[in-house]
């Protein structure tokens, strides 16, 4: 409709133009070689206009004929390109469908029709991968590195090829190159990070994590914890190699990211203490304890004040525990210090609530020492037995020091970074919690011993020394000599027996019988 309207407007315009030209008055008369030419002005102008139009048409026709071969060639190439793109599309569909034969056939067809190796190499490589032709796939991916537009895809393909063949070193190199080429590529970051951790490259993993964080690929508190763990792992490696300055630098950076990370705080405090910075070391431990109490922090703290008296150091440690008074580790630590100060009842009161929750071997040992101080070794034996039977604590560094292997650091980076803990929970949960009645029974004082009855002694006198009772009644012997009357049998004097003293020894005190008498004591 629009074309028809334009056509009518053009015809109308031309008709109006010719009418206007014909309406012009005047004529042109000329004598040419004896011929008299007479032309009206309007007709002359129309002839001139038609000549220009004819000339323009001739120029266009010549130009069209000159461009015609190029157009035919371009049309042929466009046809090939369309057929090649169709083959490329169907080849990618075959790759997605898992049909290696169809994918390779379309890949060959696309290579013939398309003069764009970047696209066909990708399809050829993927089809070869699908068919299990690793050599062809690797050649195709390597060829893609020559073109800037396909270099990144080629690196990813070579990275996957290296991983499938078990060549982690080459895979790491390809991933590094891809990550430098495109720092915002998540697969490249994750590959560099994971491969660096697997081979113990804590510094490389930390650099990758920082670059990813800068580009928005990694954000949140877990990133800060991972940075702290990686820096600490590198610091321990530096410390083991004797580079304490570099170790302390990394430890300070780690504590800025996570002040409660006990492996970093324990080593940092020890290094600061060795340099004589006791107050700074104590502040590091206090900050870490307020976030996450750990036994290794206690040992580092004790080493800072090892030259002080036992009571003064115990008071310092109690103040440290008060930085996190609600935590079980703090209550256990305070109880241990009261034990050292022989404040048994205070220690017992602090330990009893811990025994009702989830006590460990250290809790039972502390209660055993408390009971031994209160009631003696015998009463403490059940508690020592419980301490020996208690399961090991699933937390590293309980003995006061950290001894991580490379695999241990690798696992620690994951556990602390992802879950904010030093070790995974145990596969089996075993609770040693005691009831209130059990605690009362095991902490009760021993019963007082019952008083033993006094033994009765019978005085036996030999026949030749016995005195006739009848004669004793008269008070004289047969010869008439005066003899002291003996007391009646029912009034015999019993030997005096003293009670047992505190040491368990018994003593008897009685009059010494005459030399010619035999005395034996028989308990009834």
Overview of the structural elements:
With 524 residues, the chain is mainly alpha-helical. Helix content is 64%, strand content 3%. The protein has 22 helices and four strands. The strands form two sheets. A two-stranded antiparallel sheet has the order 1-2. It has a two-stranded antiparallel sheet with strand order 3-4. A hairpin with a 2-residue loop joins strand 1 (27-32) and strand 2 (35-40). Helix 7 runs antiparallel to helix 8 (186-198).
Tell me briefly what this model is.
The protein is mainly alpha-helical and 524 residues long. It contains 22 helices and four strands.
Which helices and strands, and how do they pair?
Blueprint lengths: L1 H21 L4 E6 L2 E6 H57 L2 H14 L3 H15 L2 H11 L6 H15 L2 H14 L4 H13 L3 H13 L6 H20 L3 H14 L4 H13 L3 H14 L3 H10 L5 H12 L6 H13 L3 H12 L5 H15 L1 H13 L16 H14 L16 H8 L25 H6 L21 E2 L10 E2 L15
Antiparallel strand pairs: 1-2, 3-4
Helix pairs in contact: 1-2, 2-3, 2-4, 3-4, 4-5, 5-6, 6-7, 7-8, 8-9, 9-10, 10-11, 10-20, 11-12, 12-13, 12-14, 13-14, 15-16, 16-17, 16-18, 17-18, 18-19
Question: What would the keywords be for this entry?
Answer:
22 helices, disordered C terminus
Q: What is the string of SSEs from the N terminus onward? A: HEEHHHHHHHHHHHHHHHHHHHHHEE
* Morphology call: elongated
Straight-line distance between termini: 143 Å
What integer is the average pLDDT? Answer: 83
Instruction: Give the radius of gyration.
Output: 54 Å
Q: What's the number of helices?
A: 22
Structural class: mainly alpha
Strand content: under 5%
What spatial order of strands do you see in the largest sheet?
A: 1-2
User: Mind summarizing the main beta sheet?
Assistant: 2 strands, antiparallel
State the share of residues found in helices, binned by percent: 55-70%
Uncertain spans, ≥5 residues at pLDDT below 50?
A: 458-524
Q: How many strands appear in the DSSP assignment?
A: 4
């Amino acid at each position: 409709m629009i074309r028809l309207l334009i056509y009518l407007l053009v015809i109308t315009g031309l008709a109006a133009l010719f009418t206007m030209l014909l309406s012009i008055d005047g004529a042109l008369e000329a004598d040419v070689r004896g011929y008299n030419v007479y032309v009206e002005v309007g007709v002359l102008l129309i002839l001139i206009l038609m000549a220009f139009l004819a000339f323009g048409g001739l120029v266009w026709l010549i130009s069209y004929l000159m461009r015609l071969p190029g157009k035919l060639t371009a049309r042929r190439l466009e046809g090939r390109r369309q057929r090649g793109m169709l083959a490329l599309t169907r080849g990618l569909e075959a790759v997605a469908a898992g049909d290696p034969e169809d994918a390779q056939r379309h890949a060959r067809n696309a290579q013939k029709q398309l003069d764009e190796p970047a696209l066909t190499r990708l399809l050829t490589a993927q089809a070869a991968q699908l068919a299990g032709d690793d050599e062809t796939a690797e050649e195709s991916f390597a060829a893609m590195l020559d073109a800037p537009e396909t270099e990144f895809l080629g690196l990813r393909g070579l990275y996957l090829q290296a991983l499938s063949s078990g060549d982690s070193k080459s895979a790491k190199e390809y991933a590094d190159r891809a990550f430098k080429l495109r720092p915002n590529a998540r697969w490249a970051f994750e590959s560099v990070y994971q491969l660096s951790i697997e081979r113990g490259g804590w510094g490389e993993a930390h650099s990758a994590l920082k670059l990813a964080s800068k580009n928005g690929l990694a954000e949140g508190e877990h990133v800060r914890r991972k940075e702290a763990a990686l820096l600490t792992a590198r610091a321990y490696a530096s410390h083991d190699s004797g580079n304490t300055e570099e170790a302390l630098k990394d430890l300070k950076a780690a504590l800025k990211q996570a002040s409660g990370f006990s492996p970093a705080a324990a080593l940092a405090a020890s290094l600061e203490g060795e340099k004589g910075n006791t107050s700074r070391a104590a502040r590091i431990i206090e900050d870490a304890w307020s976030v996450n109490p750990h036994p290794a922090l206690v040992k580092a703290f004790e080493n800072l004040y090892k030259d002080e008296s036992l009571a003064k150091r115990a008071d310092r440690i109690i103040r440290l525990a008060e930085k996190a008074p609600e935590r079980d580790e703090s209550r256990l630590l305070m109880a241990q210090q009261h034990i050292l100060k022989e404040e048994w009842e205070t220690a017992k009161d602090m330990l009893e609530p811990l025994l009702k929750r989830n006590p460990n071997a250290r809790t039972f040992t502390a209660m055993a020492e408390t009971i031994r101080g209160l009631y003696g070794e015998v009463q403490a034996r059940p508690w020592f037995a419980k301490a020996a039977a208690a399961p090991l604590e699933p937390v590293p560094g309980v003995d006061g020091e950290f001894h991580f292997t490379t695999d241990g650091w690798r696992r620690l980076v994951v556990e602390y970074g992802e879950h904010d803990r030093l070790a995974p929970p145990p596969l089996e949960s075993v609770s040693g919690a005691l009831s209130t009645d059990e605690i009362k029974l095991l902490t009760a004082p021993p019963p007082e011993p019952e008083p033993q009855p006094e033994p009765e002694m019978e005085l036996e006198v030999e026949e030749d020394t016995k005195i006739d009772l009848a004669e004793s009644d008269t008070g004289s012997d047969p010869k008439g000599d005066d003899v002291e009357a003996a007391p009646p049998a029912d009034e015999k004097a019993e030997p005096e027996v003293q009670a047992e003293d505190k040491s368990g020894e018994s003593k008897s005190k009685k009059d010494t019988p005459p030399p010619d008498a035999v005395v034996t004591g028989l308990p009834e």
